[in-house]
Amino acid sequence: MTTDAVPATATGTLTHRRLPRYAPAVTLALSAAVGAGLSAAVGFSVPAFVVGALLAYMATITIAAGVVEGRRKAVDRLVTSLVYAAFGIALVPLTSVVWSVLANGLPRFGAEFLTTSLRNVTGLHDQQAAEGLAPYIGGAYHAVLGTFLITALATLISVPVGLLASIYLVEYGRGRLARAITFFVDVMTGIPSIVAGLFAAALFGVLFGVGTRNGFAGAVALSVLMIPVVVRSSEEMLRIVPNELREAAYALGIPKWRAVVRVVLPTAISGIASGITLAIARVVGETAPLIVTAGFTSSINNNPFADWMMSLPAYVYSQAMRPLSGSTPEPSLDRAWAAALTLVIIVMALNLVARLVARLFAPKNSR
Amino acid sequence: MTITTTDVQTPPNASSTPAKNRAGDRNFSWATRGAGMLILVVLAGVAAFLLLESLPALSADPADIEGGEGFFAYVWPLVFGTLAAALIALIVATPLALGIALFISHYAPRRLSQGLGYVVDLLAAIPSVVYGLWGIQWLAPNVRGAWQWLADHLGFVPLFTGPASATGRTLMTAGLVLAVMILPIITAIAREVFLQTPALHQEAALALGATRWEMIRMTVLPFGRPGLISGVMLGLGRALGETMAVAMVLSTGGFTWSMVTSGNSTIAAEIALDFPESAGLKTNTLIAAGLVLFVITLAVNMAARRVVTRRQAFSGAN
Amino acid sequence: MNLSIARRGLAPLAVAGAAALVLAACGSDPDTNPADDTENAGDTADSSEADSDLSGSLNGAGASSQEAAQQAWIAGFQQQHPGVTVNYAPEGSGAGREQFTSGAVPFAGTDAYLDDEELVAAEEACGAPAVDLPLYIDPIALPYNLPGVDTLNLRPEVIAGIFDEQITTWNDPAIAESNPDVTLPDLPITPVHRSDESGTTENFVDYLSKAAPQAWPHEVSGDWPAGLSGEAAAQTPGVIQAVEAAEGTIGYASAAAVGDMTTVAVGVGDEFVEYSAEAAAAVVASSPQAEGRAENDFAVDLARDTTESGNYPIVLISYIVACTAYDDAATGELTQAYLSYLASEEGQQAAADAAGSAPISDEMRADVQSVIDSIEIG
Predict the structure, then answer these.
(1) B29 and A189 in contact by Cβ < 8 A?
(2) How many structural domains does chain B have?
(3) What does the DSSP assignment read for C5-64?
(4) Quick check: C225 and C233 in contact, CB under 8 A?
(5) What is the pLDDT of residues A56-92, one digit of tens each?
(6) Residue A296 dihedral angles phi and psi, to the nearest 5°
(7) Which of C199, C226, C242 has its CB closest to that of B167?
(8) Contact A293, A218 (CB under 8 A)
């Protein structure tokens, strides 16, 4: 649609001629018809129809605008349709992913799934359940608890370290140390996740004895992966805080650290929160580093500092790829999808918390 | 940046407060520096571990390495596959992400855009195993026809040589799955940066009679470019290092130029597929492959840094 | 102002803390023994009261092929001993052996027995020799997708030719020769193999190279030969799915996962044998002990080229490796009790019911049990 509020009249000399407001809608309808015709010519298929209609629309609206409104308006209309098209195209796979998770995850998802563990559940139970002889049993409580505790610990480690380091880079860092940190944070984003896991496992082996695995070791492994994401995204967000704000704060005689904490951070907090959510999202789905550091169990363990702990991604992977019962894998697959849905819901909740924090601290007059 | 701590902290008529302030400042600046150094220490640990574990593979008799021709003969097809998949993902995802970010920040109605931003963040959270399952069950069957078409009509291009895969699980498909995975990452960062474009710049452009696209081109894009590049790099990092999704979707095999037939593999997928059952030298070889991945990511990031710093004039804290 | 900031900052933390408390309070183990459950599950629950003096946790790691069986064993054992938690990390055979030889876990599962070097390292970690116990036998079936073809007899050389991509269509004379009563379609063959390194691949390739040495020129390894293209899929479900997805495919996979797909009858001597638990256990029982092993070690070199009637030679053996002495009494007792359960008839049956493995023969069970009984504790 057009943005300008000026009505379309061809009489005035000060205003340019404009396409009528209904032009895009009409063009779209025509293009749909053209697209249908084109795709019918090559044997009808939905993608061919969409592509045909899209191209027809872009060509028509651009040419029409070029003739009536001039070149600049034509480019603007073309870009507008491109942006809308990009959005529309991207929606297809994204909705399909969400749909897959919901459609496959919901049947098994529920209170019983969330509050029971998988202890003592075997393929035999699955076979009986599939034959209708017994109820479906076995949930993911132990994995939910593990993922929650491990991720929370990893966030507690990574966010302070990462945020402080990014503040150092943006506000204090000069010279060699800052350059080295910038450089090596980039290097850290390239650590393959299994290497982070093996590193943490080796570290805990050295510190606490060979074969030590617990939730905390998993949190350390995740932190290695999380910190660079936190640093990079927060750094980016801190950098775009206008210098005028800092200078205004200094001019009022506020010490630098208070200016950073009370002015720079709140201004950037929305972006930082978004970055932290991304960082959590980056690690919450990790499988391999958690198995080698936190172990693998089907029993409940609520102490992250002792004994093995399960995580949701490991649960999803093991249920999907190595079902409890080889001959009737469906109950295991259902568990895998339900656990994936749980994981998404957990991240959604974390995201909400991050946004809450952002809203509470953000300056009131910002957008 | 020219304003330093001392510039601000020493007004001519300093009273008793500055001393206290300086203590606070000192502690805070040491805390931030400490955090930075901690990162260096951790990285040094990881690097030492990586090098130590991969040395046996790098110095081993070439005949003992998988394939029998030494480590580099083993690793280069994997490097090719890694780069190709990541490149496909970037080519597909970057324009789309730019479009979505602009849509959310400058085109969509305010109410809708907030909801959309939330959904995009959420999509970044879907675990890669799910993307893998989705890639096998939904994407591969749906794109199989397209690859067949490419092989039939553009088969003379080395990248599309047939025969097209019967199941559609090709490097191109893996690249598309990666594109969908990194789309939310790039979008989230780009959107945040675009939203931070100073309103004054935008209003000035509009007041001069710029169309919406001209306003975006003149103010939003230059301002958001470093952030956009950062987002792309984060996405690229994920695409390069993604294991499970690629391992599940791709029908791995030996090197081939064709993107629409079975074959090729990526470093991360190779590690994920072979690490569990490996032992001895094979383990070292895989970790050395991890080291190569590390170096690739490093090189890519350094290049991006260079681009970003060249444009730093637009950064708020310059 | 400061106060309000503090309060605002605490609110989300409080929410997270409350969520954690709720989460920690509301979970439980599932009720795995409803009143109307089957007899054998009921039996294990009854016997638990008598013998529950064991407690603590026992952690093992290793082959992912055993995961479903381990889950069944752990469930059965934990029901007998409610105070015990057993964990098994399915990280893979290599990781399992490495952790066992470095003393990180008291027992490990592995698709390949400990080699000489690992035996030395294990003896150092245990303080006594380590043993390989073949407690998990899994026949490997060859599922194929050819509508209308319900039986398919293939000689080892033909199987090797198909997977080596020398025989490329289903109506090839080599295939027709051993299937005189079957109408074979003129369809290209798509062999499907595992993309991940696996014990299943290693055992299958080992079979091909021993039973058809001329037709299979590739080296034996858990990785599919790099020169061959074919279709690759991750893990057992991936192979099954790929075979189901397209016509003209043939793959190899753990027999438990094959379900009601059509499978190949494999040529042994002059006859063709369909996979079965008995045929798989039979070949293991008739295979010789690996060379240079201690008397109480049950590492076997499978007789892939067996011509004995009723033997099915494509079999995966997964071992449990354990020490013959444990310094730590608690760990030793738990390990001994757990392994005894694995080797019991009940344990073998539990794995067969849940995971579809083939129970080991009674003689072998007795032999393994005597080794487990001889484990020195403390």
Answers:
(1) no
(2) 1
(3) HHHHHHHHHHHHHHHHHHHHHS-B------TT--HHHHHHHHHTTTT----EEEEEEE-G
(4) no
(5) 888 888 888 888 888 888 888 888 889 988 888 888 8
(6) -155, 120
(7) C242
(8) yes
Phi, psi of A130 (to 5 degrees): -65, -30
Note the pLDDT tens digit of each residue in B111-156: 887 788 777 777 776 778 788 888 888 888 888 888 888 888 887 8
Report CA Rg, chain B.
24
Domains and CATH numbers, chain C: 3-135+321-377 (3.40.190.10), 141-285 (3.40.190.10)
pLDDT at C45 over 60: no
Q: B23 lies in a domain?
A: no
Confidence band, pLDDT 50/70/90 cuts, at residue B76: confident
Which chain A residue has the Cα nearest residue B226? A236
Domain of residue B198, CATH code: 1.10.3720.10
Phi-psi category of A70—alpha, beta or left, where left has phi over 0 and alpha has psi -120 to 50? left
In terms of Cβ atoms closer than 10 Å to its own Cβ (0-12, 13-18, 19+), residue A143 is buried
Handedness of CA B108, B112, B118, B124 (dihedral sign): negative
Tokens in use for A135?
């109820």
Residue C300, SS3 per DSSP: strand
**Tokens representing residue C58 in the block:** 């026992």
Q: Going by C-beta distance under 8 Å and a sequence separation of 6 or more, which residues neighbour residue B36?
A: A164, A165, A168, A169, A173, A177, A178, A181
Contact B277 C190 (CB under 8 A): no
Our CA angle for A182, A185, A191, nearest 5°, is 155
Cβ contact A252:A123 at 8 Å: no
- The domain locations on chain A are 8-105, 123-360
What residue type is C137 in one-letter code? I
User: How do beta strands C315-323 and C107-110 pair?
Assistant: antiparallel
C197 to B247, C136, C159, C160: CA distances (angstroms): 12, 19, 20, 19
With beta carbons less than 8 A apart as the criterion, state whether C253 and C285 touch. no
Q: What is the pLDDT of residues B248-262, one digit of tens each?
A: 888 877 788 877 777
Q: What is the DSSP letter of B313?
A: G
In whole angstroms, give the CA distance from residue A199 to residue C104. 16
**C78: chain A residues, CB-CB within 8 Å:** 119-120, 299
What percent of chain A shows pLDDT beyond 70? Answer: 93
Residues with Cβ within 8 Å of residue A309, at least 6 apart in sequence? A146, A149, A150, A214, A215, A218, A294, A295, A297, A301
Mean pLDDT of chain A: 84
Touching B: which chains, 3+ CB pairs < 8 A?
Answer: A, C
What pLDDT does A296 receive? 87
> Is residue B76 included in any domain, yes or no?
yes
The whole domain housing B183 covers 60-315
State in words which class domain A123-360 has. mainly alpha
The answer to the question of residue B21 being in a domain is no
What is residue C346's predicted lDDT score, i.e. its pLDDT? 93
CB B166 within 8 A of CB B235: no
Distance CA B239, CA B236 (A): 5
A289-299, pLDDT tens digit by residue?
Answer: 888 888 888 88
A278–chain B nearest CA distance, Å: 7
Interface touch C89/A137, C-beta < 8 Å? no
CB C10 within 8 A of CB A363: no
Which position has the token pair 């169990």?
A297
For B286-308, the pLDDT digits (tens) are 888 888 888 888 888 777 777 76
Asked if C225 and C251 count as a contact pair (C-beta separation under 8 A), the reply is no
**In this complex, do B167 and C97 lie within 8 Å of one another by their Cβ atoms?**
no
Instruction: Report if residue B308 sits inside a domain.
Output: yes
The partner residue sitting opposite A340, judged by closest CB among B129, B234, B243, is: B129
